[in-house]
Amino acid sequence: MDIIDREEAGWLVALSWLSALEETARDFHGTRPRVFSERAYEHAVQYYLHLLGDEYGMQINKSDSIRSAVENYIQIGIAGGLFRDASHFEVVEVNPSHVQITVHDCVYLKSCQSLIEEGFSIRDLTCARIGAFRAAVKSLANIDCDYQVKSFNIDGDCKGYIERV
User: Is the dihedral angle over the CA atoms 22, 147, 78, 50 positive or is it negative?
Assistant: First the structure.
């Protein structure tokens, strides 16, 4: 039996809990558990930023736009060990109220594939990555937004957007 290193084990536990949370949201809220999931993402982002700032002394800067909040959160996530590299994300500002995001090598791809195979549409997908970016915009820039998954592919790229409501 192989032994999984501590970092990989942490990711497995986090992925398991997040997948369970999303599946439970669907159990109680049907195919569109968005309100529940969005609130969970907000709590997770707030708690994460609190831990990094208060427990680890990391400087958490506020942002003044959707794009800057997403980019700020990516940098915070890299410094905090949540993300490995900024190149895993493409952030394109279509206009100040609409930002497109591509997530390369998404760790949640298998979950989305399973849901699509079960008959869910792409519009039905909640997305922990883009949903957390939306929550980061709310927390870091105090801008209320919506998000939507637009596509994903077998190579692990997920595309969506965050838009001011």
Answer: negative
Residue entry with tokens 């709310």: 138
Domains and their CATH numbers in the chain: 6-164 (3.30.1380)
* Separation CA 91–CA 111 (nearest Å): 23
Query: Cα–Cα distance between 157 and 44 in angstroms, integer?
Result: 23
From residue 32, how far is each of 1, 28, 40, 79, 120 by CA, in Å? 40, 10, 14, 33, 10
DSSP state of 96: T
Residue count of the chain, please give it.
165
**Residue-level pLDDT at 161:** 98
Q: What does the pLDDT look like over 72-114, one tens digit per residue?
A: 999 999 999 889 899 999 999 999 999 999 999 988 887 788 8
CA distance 63 to 108: 27
* Cross-strand bridge partners of residue 98: 95, 163
